[in-house]
Amino acid sequence: MQNVKKYFTEGLIQFTILLSLIGVRVDVDSYLNGPYSPLEINDGPSSAYIQTPFHSLRDNWDGYSVHPKCPELDYFFACRRLLDEVRALGSPIRFPTQLSAWLVHQVPDSSELREPPNSTSNSNVSAGLLSESTGEEANDTELLAVDESHTAAQLSEPGPFPSSGACEIPNQEVEELKGRIQEYGDEGREEPVSLTQLALSSTLEYEGLLSSGAPLSSPEDHHPPDIDQHWSQFLSLPIYEFDLSDLDTDISSAISQDVSLRDAMVTGSVYDMIPPRGGVRTLVARQPRGPLFRLESTNSSNLSPGMTTGLAALPNAAVVNGTRNGSSSHGALEGCLDEAVFDQINLLGLGGCLETMDAQLLGILQGIDPRVLGDLDSDSGLSLESSSRGPDSPSASEVSSSSSSSFFEDEGGATGYSSEVDSLPSKSIANYDTWSPVDFSESVWHDHSYSSAAFSQPSATTFPHKAIKEEPFSDEDGEDDEDRELSRDELRTRALHVPFSAAEIVSMPVEEFLEVLEGRGLSPAQVAFLRDIRRRGKNKLAAQNCRKRKLDAITGLQEEVERLQAQRSRLLRERQHTAKALGAAGQRMEHLSRDIFSRLRDGSGRPLTSERYTLQCEANGRVVVQHIRRPSVATTSAGGKPDKRKKEKKP
DNA sequence: TAGAGTTGTCATCTT
DNA sequence: TTAAGATGACAACTC
C-alpha cells in the first residue's frame, strides 16, 4: 500500500506540475477515485530517442526508484528519467517493445488466458479492435470520469518488464488488474486476450532468447495457474517442450524405424542365444532388439526344418534364457517372445530327436523353400547366401563349377556368395568327426567375442552329416549341390583334410586355435591356410558389423535431421504467431490511445487528438501524454527548450 | 544392360 | 610383437 500511495502522490504532483506547464486541463477529481493516477502530460521536446534497456529498468519493478541508495533524489531522478523516457518515446517503432512491458501484467484474465494463443484469436481481436475504435469515436462524449480513472490507472500500473520474465507482479496486483480489465471489458470495448499475446515483447527478442538458450524466467512462482499455462504455451517453454516432445517422438519414431532397419539388415539374433562359454556371455555385440525378436518370433511359426535344426541344437536353457535376457528391455515384445520361445521349445523337443535325425526328417528339409532358408540366413549376422544359392540360383552352377575345378584356385575379389554355413553339413564335418579330437558340439559353443551369426549356426552341424550327405538339399546332382554349398575356405579345408570346418576355425578361441596350429602337426601350408581362413572369417564378420554400424549411424543422422526440421518448422510457426500477436497489440495500443485522448481535454476544453499528442509508457508503468512536435515547426522546438529546462528543473 | 545394393575380401590402421 | 577389431576400397554377384 505504501507503494500505491507513493505512486499516487508522485503521480498527482507530477500531474499537476506538468499540467501547469503545458496548460492542459484534466479532471483531476476523477483520478482521486482511483488508487493510481500518475497520468502526466508532457509538452517537452521529443526530438531525441533514447533506447531504454530493460535491464536498466529492473530497479523500478517494485516501485523502487532508480537510485535506491539515494532516497532523497528519488523524486528528482524519477521525474528526470520520466521526462527522458518521454522524449525517448518519439519513435513509433519502439513502442511495441515498451508496450509489452506493461501489457504483460495487465492481461491476466482467467477466461481469456485459457484460450490458446492462436492466430484466430489474434485476428478476432484485431478485428474487434478496429470495429470498437470506430464506434468509440462516436461515443466519446459519453465517457465517464470513473472510466477515465480506471483507464488511466490501468495504463499507469507499474509493472515488471518481460525481460525478466514478467514474474514479479504480485498476485494482489494481478487480481486487481483482472478486475480492472474485466471492468473495462464490461463496457464492451476490451478483449484482454490480445494483451496476453503481448507477452512476447518482440519477435526479435523472442528469437534472441531462443537462440541464446537463456532460460526464461519461470512464471510458476508468481503467476496464477492460468498465466502459467499461458506462458508455457505461448512463450518460453516451447524450447523445452520441443526437446521433450521431440525426444519422445524421436524415441518412438526411432523404434518404429528401427523395425524396418532391423528387417532390412537383420542379424542373427539366434546367435545371441548361444550360451556363454565359461559363464561369460559375450555374444551380445548384435544387440537383441525388439524388432529382431519380433521378426524371428513371427517367423518361428513358419520355421523351416532348417531353422528347426538350428534351434534344436541349442540347449533349452540357453534358448529360453537368451531370449528372455534379450527381451528384457523390450517388454512390449514379450508376447511375441513368448510365442517364439514356445515355438522354439517345441522345436527343441523336435530337436532332441535331431541327433537321430533320419532321412524322413531330411526329406522335410528337401521340401523347404529355398527362399525360406534364405531368410533364415539373412537373419543371421553372416551372410549365408543360401537365398542366392538355392537350387534355383542361376549362379549356383557357376560357383559349383569354379569351386569344383580347383580348391586352390585363387579367387580374387568377392566370393561372398559361397555359403559357409550351408557348408557346415558337409564333408568337412565328416572329416571333423573323423579327425578332430575336439568335441565339435563343444567347439561350436565357444563363445568368441565377435558376434557371428554364422558361427553359431554351426548348430546345424549337429546334423548327422552322413544323412545330409545322403540327402542333399536338392534332388538335382548331389555332388554339385554339395560343392556349391561349400564356401571357398570350406572347400579348401576339405581339400587339405583339415580336421576343422572353416566355421570352427573362425569361431574357436585364439588359444584353442593356437593349440590346433601347434599341436596337430600340421604342415606350414595348412597352418597358413588355417590362419587365412580365420582371418577372412573374422574380417567378414567385422565388415558386416561395420556396415551395420554405418547404417545405424546413417539412420540416426536421418532421424536427427527430421527432428531438427520439425523443430525448425515449429519455431517458424511460433515466430509467425508472435508477429501476429505483436500486430494485435499495436492495434490495441492505438485503440487505447484514442480512448484516452477522447477523455482528455486541453485548456480550452477541447479533446486531445492523437494527431497532436501521443501516449508513452514509462518503465514504472506511468503513462505520459506527450505533445507531438512536428519537424516543420522549427520555432516551436526552439521555444520548447526553455520548457524542457523548466521541466527538468522543476522537480 | 546399366545401375543400385549386397557381400566377401584385402589392405591398413588402431587398440 | 601379435591378435583382433574397424574401416575404406574393390570386385563379384544379384536383382
UniProtKB/TrEMBL annotation:
Biased composition (Acidic residues): 473-484
Record-linked InterPro entries: bZIP, bZIP_Maf, NFE2-like, TF_DNA-bd_sf
Pfam families: bZIP_Maf
Keyword Lipid metabolism: no
Organism superkingdom: Eukaryota
GO molecular function: DNA-binding transcription factor activity, RNA polymerase II-specific; RNA polymerase II cis-regulatory region sequence-specific DNA binding
Region annotation (Disordered) ranges: 110-138, 379-421, 461-488, 628-651
Gene Ontology terms: cellular component: nucleus
Coiled-coil zones: 547-581
Family, per entry: Belongs to the bZIP family. CNC subfamily.
The protein's name in its UniProt record: Nfe2 like bZIP transcription factor 3
